[in-house]
Amino acid sequence: MQTFNPSGRPALIGSLPMDDHEKAAGLVLEYVPEIPLWVQLPVYREEGMVAQFLPGMPGVVTEGDKTFIDRAKPGFDEEILAFYEDYLMVGEGGLALSDSRFAMTGAEARGFSEMKRRIAELSEKPVAVKSQITGPITFATGTTDREGRAIFYDDELRDVAVKQLAMKAAWQTRELASFGKPVMVFFDEPALAGFGSSAFLTITREAVMEALNEMSRAVHAEGGLSGVHVCANTEWDLLLDSEIKVISFDAYAYFDKFMLYGPKIKSFIERGGILAVGIVPTTPAEVIEKEDVDSLFRMWEDQLARLEGLGLTKERIIERTLITPSCGTGSLPLALAVKVLDMTRGLSRKIRGL
Domain range for residue 26? Predict the structure, then answer.
């Protein structure tokens, strides 16, 4: 696994409110050229959080505007068997990952292809590259069977979903590692904001940890760094105790709740973990409009002091910190999304004394 010190550099979270992948890639390279990422454009249905990573799953059926996994589909058992055969062949080297069902080469990955092409053309290469994929909890609770039951509650289908995502994350890592720079792959997990609530009462900590760690190991095996992005509050000790290497959180709205886990945060950083500090707000509009680099810098100084209070040095904290928006900007008006990007870049520069 590669080592990487982000040292307060800026990075982005996933989505932009655009309909042109080439222009979206250009915007990314304008504002975060040191750590570019491929962009998801929610305007396209095939780039939705579940739809984007469904290709390759067995039993997929679409009826009207509803897509689900159907165990009653003719040939379903054969599809499951073929899936596991492909998975094992990739693992044993009998099938190239790039030639497998796990490669993302269709309409769902236009942003990935475009960013990879643009990075290859850069005269000055980035210091790292970021990628993302829907996390296993969000994917498997957002994907349902014909009766509308989340596949997370079906042991076999949950296992298939986790392996599907793990291999797609591994494929992304391998593709981007060709640039010879550290690769971070974030698992987007908005569903973890509900972990521990009545909606997820039957989902155990062990099941969540097992799924996240399996995906993490797939990324780490390709030399990448795994991360988890949660855009609201969650039980942060679950992530701090996992094999995840980067924790991305909304530091604008939930820093106080995150700091409830102070000793575990200190341990996470001391063993090489990275905090992606989402201090630049992405909602609501009036909050974005009122903030600027100076106001966010004052907030950062307060947060930095509290992290130092855990017994960490300022230098170590900044060394292990990324500055990011609190979430993606795909649902914002473009002008506000650009302001978020601009504040992210500006705050990072001020923190680094540039």
Answer: 21-54+104-351
